[in-house]
Amino acid sequence: MTSSPIRSFATATCLLALATAAPPHLFAQQSLPEVTIGMVLDGPLLRYGDLVDLVRDETLTLLGRDFDARLPDDKILEGDWTVQGISAALDRLLADPGVSVVIAAGPIVGHIAATRGHLPKPVVAPYVVDQDYQNLPRAGEATGVANLVYIARPEAQDLAVFLEVTPFERPAVLISEPLAEAIDDLPERVREATSGLGLDLPKPAS
Questions:
Q1: Contact of 169 with 199, CB cutoff 8 Å
Q2: Can you list the alpha helix ranges (DSSP code H) found in the chain?
Q3: Residue 144: which of 127, 107, 112, 119 has the closest Cα?
Q4: Of 38, 75, 98, 187, which sits 20 to 30 A from 165 (CA to CA)?
């Protein structure tokens, strides 16, 4: 049985991509409109295989009554954990006339998609690390960027609440090398965001 978080993710991904960002002509046809979904992963399927299967099953089930929806294997592209490789995979799907919607299914590709500006087709980035730390576009309750939807958790002062439960002064912040390459000022943004909490953050390791 699929867990509720996966169902929530799939529901948000499908509905936000198609109902919020999809071109109006998709809804104007009498017969079921065809929707081909593409997906970009940060790295090889060895790590993301279960996620792909879950997203495909939930997405096609949710959209089955209203769309002839497909997520074919040849539209699931892998990055190589580098900004260049992931960007190239994203570019391929954005330029592919056979793809209607792109799911940026990873924190790195999500950041790349959300910060590149113009997007020629709907893109959903469901894995946002932190919209403030990443300096992602925002206009009220939307992104303010045509064709871009990202899914961010509600804003919360997590560290501040954690400090109330378990006081500490010197936390360790672990950031993977590929993510640090994609968001090169992330360590400094974390430092700025926590500057009022009295924490002694270590300097980034070289």
A1: yes
A2: 4-15, 45-63, 83-95, 107-114, 158-165, 177-182, 186-193
A3: 119
A4: 187
